[in-house]
Fold tRNA modification GTPase MnmE.
Amino acid sequence: MEFDTIAAISTPMGEGAIAIVRLSGEQAVQIADAVFKGVGNKRLVDQTSHTIHYGHIIDTKTEQVVEEVMVSLMKGPKTFTREDVVEINCHGGLVSVNRVLQLVLNHGARLAEPGEFTKRAFLNGRIDLSQAEAVMDLIRAKTDRAMNVAIGQMEGRLSKLIQGLRQEILETLAHVEVNIDYPEYDDVEEMTHQILVEKAAHVKTEIEKLIRTSQQGKILREGLSTVIVGRPNVGKSSLLNSLVHENKAIVTDIPGTTRDVIEEYVNVRGVPLRLVDTAGIRETEDIVERIGVERSRKVLKEADLILLVLNYSDELTQEDENLFKAVEGMDVIVIINKTDLPQQIDMDRVEELAKEHKVVTTSLLQEQGVDELEEAISSLFFEGEIEASDMTYVSNSRHIALLNQALQAIEEAIHGVEMGTPIDIVQIDLTRTWELLGEITGDSVHESLIDQLFSQFCLGK
Ligand code: GDP
Ligand code: ZN
């Protein structure tokens, strides 16, 4: 496929000082060559692939040196997009990087849309759809662990799993085919039935497993929406501050989300917490007062995690008891703060109210108990499995939707077999499952099914 040449500033994560202007497309080398002046008048168009060149970017109108650069030259198809790719490494600040970008745009490149390099990699067959989507997730990943999930997916972990399942369905379909071709053999029918039941059940289990990971996947991607509640003065702001300070707040560079903060991200042992309405806690001390009873109820209901703070050195009040009622049935961690002061709280009553919720005692003033709290948060969501990062999480909503549809289709197939439905009807449900799973990886459907069936299995004869 042929596309126009695109360009964008694509600075890799974790490297602040160097910025890269990246070009991809037919004209990438020519455009870069037009603005580049190498040592000894070396021309980029004369250079071999996968080489790096030192020189300057020149404003051709004014003949001015814009930037001192290293240019990487990579000719397709051994590149990320499979097209010719040129990367201009700039050492100066944002202003000169932007001028370099502007120059290549003036010389015929088009500004890339968000994710367009990745899209090209997909369109040119370099990566499959789930890998392309993983790249997008990677860009937005908020913690190391979320990033590991995205990287795992990008490396094709999900694709491999899906492909395995599709292969199983394909084999099953081959047996169905034999059955349809040789209906006169009783033992063939018997065998088909047995294989169908076994294989379909296994595929179903695996799809269900993948769906189950999706909740955690979503959390890893979007952060665990967390609300701190408690009476005035129990230590909510102190808790927020210690969470933010101990776990460096995660900076999001999605435009518009940086200031007027009502949410703050922190990384607690790999669990990204999205602390909701932190401004409310900071400014008015009272989430209800700030956003009104109705909305705060909604905020509470939508939270993934509630941190309910009580005062160790004060008696329980009706307000405390009401809070327990308001968060019933949710994931709650009860924090009893100010343990450095004399006890006034009735711990038996707290245990009663807390029921199955984890209770942690802290003295935020003396920085005690925060470790235990973090442990409680992390084990609540990873069930103590710190190594969760090598699991395959499904975190993409398109994938989740397709998996749910595939689950339905395979259930119908199983139901059909159990009800003694004609085998060619069951075949339709199986094929549908195969196709839906294929949509996750973006593999094409229909005619390839027939081709694969006959290329992989010796039927007839
Ligand atoms: P909020 O109203 O719930 O946000 O409570 P704050 O975090 O603003 O704390 C209220 C007061 O209690 C402040 O003066 C804090 O310094 C103090 N405080 C917070 N945690 C502790 C603690 O563990 N021990 C003691 N003695 N004081 C604390
Ligand atoms: Zn406060």
In short: The pocket of zinc ion (ligand 2) is lined by residues 236-237, 285 (CB under 6 Å). The chain has 17 helices and 13 strands.
